Amino acid sequence: MTHDSTDFTSSTAPADVVRRQYLASAAGDLAALRGTLAPDVEWTEMAGFPLAGTYRTPEGVTSNVMEKLGQDWDGWTAHDDTYVVDGENVVVLARYTAVNKATGKPIDVRVAHHFVVRGGLIVRFEQFVDTALVRDATTD
What we know:
This protein is of the alpha+beta class and about 140 residues long. About 35% of the residues lie in helices and about 45% in strands. It is built from 5 helices and 6 strands, in the order αααββαββββα. Strand 3 and strand 4 form a beta hairpin. It is globular, with a radius of gyration of 15 Å. The N and C termini lie far apart (about 50 Å).
């Protein structure tokens, strides 16, 4: 089944909401990205990741995660490729690509993201990534 753009942009289906978040992130459209997040969102970057911790509020997520990734990495992109949906749970298998600005070292690392979507908004996010590969790219 295909969706026209109006259906996709207004859909509250969990996978559509998550996909809009990835598209907004890739486009650098932080306002659109914030529009996919619940006011009380909990966004957790994995322990060992450079931005490890849990961030709350859409502004907290974009300023403490997306903007910092843009400051430290050239071309930071999360390439989403496989979605597994179970009700409000969406697990996305993806990969990160970027080049660290300080070292010039690239990354191309597989990741898994777990989203919980309620009422058409992301209420929870948890990242799973090989933090050693990311850390290696940040050190000389």
